[in-house]
Amino acid sequence: MTGAIVLGRDLTGDQVLVVDAVVVGTGAGGSIALRELARAGLDVVALEEGPYLTPRDFNQREDEMIPRLFQDAGGRATEDLGIRVLQGRGVGGSTIHNTNLCKRTPDAILELWARKYGVAGASAADLQAAFETIERDLSVSEIPAALRNANNDVLRAGCEALGWRGAQLHHNRNGCQQSGFCELGCAYDAKQNALKVVLPQALEAGARVYADVEAVRIVHDGARVVGVHAVARDADGGPRGAVNVWAKVVVLAASAVGSAALARRSGLPDPNQQLGRGLRMHPGAAVAGRFDRDIRGWRGIPQSFECTEHLSHEEGSDERVWIVPAFAHPVGSAATLPGFGAAHMAAMRAYPRLAVMTAVVHDETRGEVDVDGEGNPIVRYVMSERDRGQLAKGLVACARLLLAAGALEVTIPAIPRVRVTRASELDGLDTSALRPHSVPLTAVHPMGTLRMGEDPKISVVRSTGEHHQLRGLFVADGSLFPTSIGVPPQISIYAFAQHLAPHIIERAR
Amino acid sequence: MRVSSGSRGETQKPERRVSRRRLFELTAAAALTLGGLAAAVRTHGYAVPVGRRLVATSPWQFIVLQHAARRIAAPDREGAAAIPTVPTADDLDVAGFVDGWLVRMQPGVRRDFGRFLAYVEHVAPLREGLVTRFSRLAPPEQDRVLAATEASSSDLLRAGFDGLKSLCMMGYYRDARAWSLVGYDGPLVGRPPSGWSGG
Fold first, then answer.
1. Domain membership flag for residue A80
2. How far B144 CA lies from chain A's nearest CA (Å)?
């Protein structure tokens, strides 16, 4: 059997596929599930609602790449419009646009899942082999200090000046040209991601990927899955024909939003009303510091250094903020800087001299993914008071770091905006305005909507990834995680898919 | 707001009581509806430039968008500090770009955006004591209306302004003529690799 990428636009007429397994989504989790199923000699296809793009398509222009790489043209947001939810689409999923950060799931999180959420067989020791496999396959390594750009140097300098905990990060890049356009896809093919590494391995083993083919409904009889109904799309998004896949195993790997939305519109059994609940997102917001020298933060590796001074993964901690650099290209920066008109332009003229940090909350808030009458995802997430407190703490910490590193002035883009020139001004700062709707918030790590665990009253799938009620339905993406993980999730998602693959293969045989 | 301490994974719900904040939201929703109703009947007097083919907005929506973009995305060239080398929102066709961008959005988002434009045109000026439509106000008054919307006590209206501003900024800063203003050197694809000194 020969693997292939099939484009929805090339399909003529309705398609019927009879296979051993079908994977929905081709990001970190989906690509691994696809690869392992194909390597086991099974007939497997993946359905990807987004396009198949290659490095020559990544032209480094925000206005052209954002609508091609992100859900809803980058406009997805929570129902109350308080948080922008940036999620990838396309062959390779969010691994195309992410910033390649590689951190394992913290031990404290895995222990919490075992202790409180009944997750079995997923201790650090249990996952060790999967993490090692993934880190080897993706060429994970520490980012050399020599590749730290000026924006990241500001964070390191701030940590040093304040005596705060900070460290160099790990990534999965080879041959990085330091262009700084990671979030728009790598034109130099340096990302060792699902698109570059894992999917070619899956194709080599015989898997087929259908791009521009959107899964519409999981077909089941109430006790087991029997397939997926999908629709192929033209280049302009119009329907081209039906793609009906019949299989005894269906793997959901379309993200914590996409997988949960598909599950909800498919009417899956949900006796304990857990499906779609428990959404976490790592919401974050940025703080900008103006320096007396050029930073030119848009060049170089966007994130190579982290501050973990205010980050603990212990349950119930009041230190739940991860701080990393977050420089954006002009469109993103202009949208984030406060104000408009002439004053805004004046602020933008300082663009080369800005350093930008973001405070990301390791959140406790439990949101929900639902669907509207047309089946589109609705993301409900109202940040809890405790998480709002963490957000405010994180933004103030970013301001302190920037000032400690030598910023002349720091702006927290709130309404009303906060502008300070000395750390002492932060001491008595009224932080009540540092909350959603006053601060532009973005979330890029949705998790937790199809949680794993042995107790069906508090989970949707077993610790093997298989649905409690539907035989043959598996989950292999961030939906699995019972809580926020407080680190970038890509390595955890890859590793959990690798870890669960034997169970999926066994069921598909 | 309640924070569940249990492990059952319930979604947190906002409090149901009608708080002051909730009243503001209800007022904002009513204002958006009022704006939409006004927009439905007050559609005369909006002349789209000759040759302009709209793909997602109606003529009145496009005109409001055009006026808002002029105030949001570019510096004031009408005052003493005019900088002739700085392109205006019209120079970069920001409104046209946003019209094209909206086609990609879900129908519900487009509908909500249209309601917000109706609010800006017909209701927001009234809240500032101005009885003229936004698109017929003088630029300083338009700035006043937009600033009030940006700082509104309503989350809904602030989110609407944020969306409008984001689209206008996308329309403006997508263009290489804007990049040079802010010292951005643009994409690297197609350029010689670093260290290359010529053939």
1. no
2. 11
A112-132 per-position pLDDT tens digit: 999 999 999 999 999 999 999
Statement to judge: residues A157 and A199 lie in one domain: no
Instruction: Give the residue from A69, A24, A70, A64 showing the smallest Cα distance to A48.
Output: A24
* Cross-chain residue pair A365–B12, CB shorter than 8 Å: yes
CB-based contact A334:A344 (threshold 8 Å): yes
Shortest Cα distance, chain B CAs vs residue A368, angstroms: 6
- Do the Cβ atoms of B11 and A368 come within 8 Å? yes
The pLDDT of residue B15 is 40
Examine the fold and report which residue of A403, A428, A443 is the final residue of a domain before the chain moves on.
Answer: A443
pLDDT in tens, A294-342: 999 999 999 999 999 999 999 999 999 999 999 889 999 999 998 999 8
Cα distance between residue A252 and residue A475, in whole Å: 5
Q: How many structural domains are present in chain A?
A: 2
Does a structural domain hold residue A176?
Answer: no
Q: Is A201 in the same domain as A230?
A: yes
Is A151 contained in some domain? Answer: yes
Interface of B with A in 87-106 (CB under 8 A): 97, 101, 104-106
Q: B166: nearest CA in chain A?
A: A335
Question: Taking CB atoms and an 8 Å limit, are B76 and A274 in contact across chains?
Answer: no
CA-nearest residue of chain B to A316? Answer: B5
Q: In a structure prediction context, what are the per-residue pLDDT tens digits for chain B, which is 199 residues long?
A: 233 333 343 444 444 444 555 555 556 666 666 666 666 666 677 888 878 899 999 999 999 999 999 999 976 655 445 566 789 999 999 999 999 999 888 888 889 999 999 999 999 999 999 999 999 999 999 999 999 999 998 989 999 999 999 999 999 999 999 998 899 999 998 776 555 555 4
Contact A385 B7 (CB under 8 A): no
Q: Quick one: A359 and A433 in the same domain?
A: yes
Domain that holds residue A156: 142-171+281-443
Which of B11, B103, B172 is the best mutation test for A, with the most CBs of A within 10 A? B11
- What's residue B197's pLDDT? 56
CB-CB under 8 Å, B108 with A376: yes
Residue with tokens 């939201």: B25
Residues of A with catalytic roles: 445
The Cα A141–Cα A107 span in angstroms is 20
- Say yes or no: A339 and A241 in one domain: no
The residue of chain A nearest to residue B13, with distances taken between CA atoms, is A382
* Dist. CA A300–CA A178, nearest whole Å: 4
What does the pLDDT average to over A67-92?
92
Instruction: Report chain A's mean pLDDT, rounded to a whole number.
Output: 96
Predicted ipTM > 0.85:
yes
β-bridge partners, A208: A4, A45
Q: Where are the alpha helices (DSSP H) in A163-218?
A: 199-204
Residues A105-114: what's their mean pLDDT? 98
Comparing alpha-carbon positions, the chain A residue that sits nearest to B160 is A81
How many helices (H) and strands (E) are present in chain B, helices listed first? Answer: 8, 0
pLDDT value at position A138?
98
Q: What is the mean pLDDT of residues A492-506?
A: 98
Place A416 in a pLDDT band, splitting at 50, 70 and 90: confident
Interface membership of B109 toward A (CB under 8 Å): yes
pTM, 2 dp: 0.92
Q: Chains A, B: CB contacts under 8 A, how many?
A: 152
> Is residue A178 one of the residues assigned to a domain?
no
CATH number at residue A103: 3.50.50.60
Q: What are phi and psi of A233, to 5 degrees?
A: -115, 145
Tracing tokens 């007939």 back to the chain, one arrives at A43
Residues A73, B104 contacting (CB under 8 angstroms): yes
Cross-chain residue pair A385–B1, CB shorter than 8 Å: yes
